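Final report, Chapter 2: Outcomes

The project's central promise was a pipeline that accepts a single protein chain and returns its three-dimensional structure in a standardized token representation, suitable for archiving and comparison. That pipeline is now operational. To close this chapter, we reproduce one record exactly as it appears in the project archive, with the input sequence first and the structure output second.
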Amino acid sequence: MDDQTILANEIPRDLFAEVVQDIATYSVGFVVPQMGISPNEPLLLGSGTFISYNGKRVIITARHVVDSRKFPTSGRIGLMLSGSVREISIDVGSYSIIRIERGNVEKEGPDLAMLVLAPAIASTLAARQSFFPLDLFQGKEEGRFDPVIGGELWVAQGYVDKYTIKGESHGSEYPIVRYYNFSGFGCPTQRNIRGSFDYLSFPTESHDEYCIPDSFGGMSGGALWRIPLKKEGDKLTYTTPVFSGVIFYEESTSPGVGNLICHGWESVYRHCCNLIDGI
């Protein structure tokens, strides 16, 4: 938005709620299918984002999520979708994994991967979930970064294990598990480039009153979104959210304070798009 300044207290609370509802439709949590739950197993494996590009449908995530020994290599994996009470499970044969690159130092990256969905399961999921169209923004986001630019919001989004609740079975064979999809508003403070990948730091600070956790485990593979704002007279709205990065590391700088380290849009639009083109 050009030549306009918007103060934080000018943003109505219902706009935040609308943004969260909008971008949550692209979000997915990888979970242990209920048939595989045991008391000692972690239930939430990581997060991802549904993406479409060049006629293909994929889930973009962090590579260490799919490299985890808990990530199924046979059988089925659970997907937690926005608005769903229970996860759905899909056969691991219904997608292929592209491991883009992973560095030797976790904090420094790179750390990116994609699940390329087979057409049948992609169509099934598309009937329930939205896929963000990278085609519409390829080439428009490259090189774009100004941490103090006016007229936009930034949101880090993914599933947070801290708020996963494993309840009683209530007569069912398996317990009811509630997963928490978290959206945190803020702004990246810096952008770094190493090799052909770019990285953004998104500051965090825990706050019990606003359900901001002190640990963001489970958000790895989740999304960083840029939300352009639009002011028409006295009314403030927003335009199409832009998928702008992938969370892959949580950095703690002091108790309750830290950064989410994310790949930026150049990492996504350059590497992911090029690899999808080659499928």
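Archive annotation: The chain has one domain: 8-277.
This record, like all others produced under the grant, will remain available to the consortium after the project formally closes.
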